[in-house]
Amino acid sequence: MTFADRLFRPVPLSILCVTLFAAALAFAQLERADERGVPPIDGSGSYEVSGVKVDVAARNAEAARSGGWREAQRKGWKMLWARVNGKPVENAPGLPDSTLDSISGGIVVEREQISPNRYIATLGVLFDRARAGELLGVKGAMRRSAPMLVIPIQWSGGTPVSFESRTEWQKAWARFRSNNSPIDYVRVSGTGADPVLLNAAQTRRPGRGWWRMLLDQYGAADIVVPEVTLFRQWPGGPVLARFVARHGPDAAVIDQFALTAENGDALPAMLDRGIERIDAAYVRALQEGAFRADKSLVIETPVEEVPIEDVLSQLAVAATSTIMVQAETPDAAALRADEAALRGMAGVTAVQTGSLALGGTSIFRVSFSGPPAAFREALISRGWQVEDAAGGVRIRRGSQPAR
Prior knowledge:
The chain contains twelve helices and 15 strands.
């Protein structure tokens, strides 16, 4: 068979099908935006207190629910005060309901049971950061980490997934209110080029060049990779999850633990608890000083070396003062004597005759390494009489009478 026959022979059908399938899969990954992306919530202006349990009875369901929400605000305020100040809940001061209404930003229903005259629920309370911060004794400022790019990885069925498709792990990170944490998380929505740039394989690449490009693209300075591996016992049964908190381009393990959900319906709540524990692990690492960015991720522009002689000459030029000196020059000999006397002074680098007037007053332009006040003192120490003149000084010998 000739080379031309080999080059133009028909492609086997199996190879053609595999190629078309791979191309279609890549096209679907980029084009099916409706199956990717979860916009993260913005909680930067609120404090959140979750897990507030209430049990209120009233004459009807509406009154019971209203009373439960008001009770949640009271309990949530005390829990927030205790968390911020590091003291027991019993020591928290009480606030009137009118004040709580003004600083409360909303109620998050985590679980509720409503009957004709009773309301049992587990709620979350949002407090306005600016207004509540004044009552808490803080101004909303806290020590925060460098911006951390978050790439959540979910392992299920032996396959890692980041932003290629919507996962429960990505949804959990999207609804996580990061404003309560000192870790500055940079969370992406997973749309556009995110699935290609921030895929699971990228988290295992040690090359720093590509990492630096990604961090610059997303406005971050470091990376955190929270992972979860899901094991389903049987369809509809318990779900076992193993969590791993990784940090940096080398995927260093900060913490790892396991949690269990009773069934698929309890999976989101279990993932939320896992995020809280991962965040707590990152916070501990930050406080202990172990949450340091890799120096290889920082792009530093090399500093051009400058010879010390050039630096000294620039400093000398910057410190040089130009002073106009007026002197009486009755003849050429007096002119040469005054000019030589000025040149012989310490600190004088140049003397130029700006205006020559034999039999009158000549003007010299003197370059002096120092401030004009130091030049004036040097003249006086050499026996000159010095007077202020327009734009400079006027000098004459001590024996000369003033005119």
